[in-house]
Amino acid sequence: MADGRRLDVPRGHARTFGSFLRLNPDAVGRFAEAIARFLGTGRFLAVQTIIVVLWIGLNVFAVSLQWDPYPFILLNLAFSTQAAYAAPLILLAQNRQADRDRVQAEEDRARAATTRADTEYLARELAALRVAIGELATRDFIRGELTRLTEDHPEDREKKSKKKKDTAAQRAPDPIA
After folding, report:
1. In degrees, to the nearest 5, what angle opens at C-alpha 95 toward C-alphas 94 and 96?
2. Which portions of the sequence form the region Disordered (predicted)?
3. Which of 28, 46, 68, 87 would disulfide-bridge 74, Cβ 3.0–4.6 Å?
4. Which of 107, 106, 103, 88 shows the shortest CA–CA distance to 29?
């Protein structure tokens, strides 16, 4: 190595034209979104309309100030330049929004999958509880069985028939009256 450079040590970046243009992509994206957001407002359209009306008015009526006579070539150049910068900025802002939408959609899909799994789990648990409750004796079932058993008992039949006779005797009209 005649020039004294070592091969085990990385060398610095060579100075190129591109090395001066290293920009933070997020900063450029935020700037593009701000510009695109402003270009889509009524304020921008109003300001641009006022500028164009003043431009044309001054160039038509102020003879001593005519910097852009009738075909308004300079105004057309300004509009072309504005369009040349506006279109890529708007596309960049749309791409960033599409990326955010894609991330949001993925998060929504994951949340929906989790919700679905939770719902299916709860449905299985509820079905298991219904099956378990179906095998248990409920209060109404026990009451019905006790009533049926007491109706079948002979002593209860005698009490019921005596009770019916007493009730019928109370309702019968008194023949003496």
Report:
1. 90
2. 147-177
3. 68
4. 88
150 and 156 in contact (C-beta within 8 Å)?
yes
- Rounded to two decimals, the pTM is 0.52
3-class secondary structure for the chain? CCCCCCCCCCCCCCCCHHHHHCCCHHHHHHHHHHHHHHHCCHHHHHHHHHHHHHHHHHHHHCHHHCCCCCCCHHHHHHHHHHHHHHHHHHHHHHHHHHHHHHHHHHHHHHHHHHHHHHHHHHHHHHHHHHHHHHHCCCHHHHHHHHHHHHHHCHHHHHHHHHHHHHHHHHHCCCCCC
Q: What is the pLDDT of residues 90-108, one digit of tens each?
A: 999 999 999 999 999 999 9
Which residue's entry shows tokens 């160039």? Answer: 59
Domain locations in the chain? 23-136, 140-164
